[in-house]
Amino acid sequence: MSATYEKVSSNKAKLSFTVPAEQFEAAMQKAYLKNRGKINVPGFRRGKAPRKLIETMYGESVFYDDAFQLIFPDLYDEAVKENNLQVVDQPEVDVQEIGEGKDLVFSCEVFVRPDVTLGDYKGLTVNVTKQTVPDADIDARIEQDRKKVARQIDVEGALENGDTVKLNYMGTVDGVAFEGGTAENQTLTLGSGQFIPGFEEQMVGMNIGEEKDLNVTFPEKYHSEELAGKNAVFHVKVLSATRTELPKLDDDFAADASEYNTFAEYKDSIVKELNDRAAKNNEIAVENALVEKAVENASMDIPQAMINEQTNYLLREMQMRMAYQGLKMEDYLKYTGQTIEQLADMYKGEAEHRVKVELTLDAIRKAEGIEPTDEDVAKQIAEQAERMGQSVEDFEKTLTDEQRGYLRDTAAIQKVVDLMKQDCTVEEKKEEAAEEKAADAE
What we know:
By secondary structure, the chain is of the alpha+beta class. The protein is built from 14 helices and 13 strands.
């Protein structure tokens, strides 16, 4: 057997094969032995008819397809491996010559990972909006910790918004009780908007043990059509109530909420935490901007099969996220009135961009001869273990060869990005950042 390789375009290869006649004849005989039991020939028990007789009755080509399939897979795989091709789609086969006593001559064209023509990827200038940590963010972060160590106290005076009340109530419309309008020992947080408009607001100022009639109007669009838009009276009685008491921002609070003994130390740690997070986000923003610029400067002809594969991957990711929430894909499509084809079309743009990023970074990696060291891979493993909440030792025990390969590739890509960062220029989008904040404020 002989095979030749030809590059048809930047994303397509052609493999041509010549299989000696005797090798094809052997495959024809195997095809006959495999199929003779399925062919009915008058005068012969099933499976006993001679090959020549079957070929006379049905034509010599009756065994061509099966004979070809016996030969093709191994020849094709060997040629792909020998020429180091990274195929991304099924081959398109063209048979030029086939028949008894003849060499089998055929070729196949197949899409491969495309060549990437890199543009500039070093010394790039990028514009990013840098995150800062305003005092409001620091105060909000401290308030989160404050609520975590808050305590609940019994309310003795008038009710306030935010109080959690236990109450009995009975609702009537035109003096007649209605279904679902009566409850005992009901829990309600005032200001939560859990009840119909006006109900919670009228309870503010009531005292424990007090009874009162609340006049409300059901919304025009209400789940119960019988009540929609109607006036109602709810007779309520306050049984008890609790209130969240937030601690003072002092040393005692710091000791309860953190590992620090003074509020000053605690606040400094919060400021550092938020600044470190902002710095990390700014670093990621620069990296993303550099990658986007390198992709924009590169050119490639991506086979549709690669985009389709990435689209299917994104759909599987979406399906897994929904499964964690207890939702099935078919139910989601029914709720949204979409088809799976429409959903796939929505993802095609993102899928194509992901493929471009992957191909560009891989091309830079090859152009620069970048390979990760054992230390680089160990760092990736440690970071992933931390994200999974496991020790490095335990996490490594669970890794498959495929997962190790993925982490190795991730380490290599990080080295590519680090290379791009070495001599880049970062300019801050000050004006756009101000405009965005103004828009958010509106």
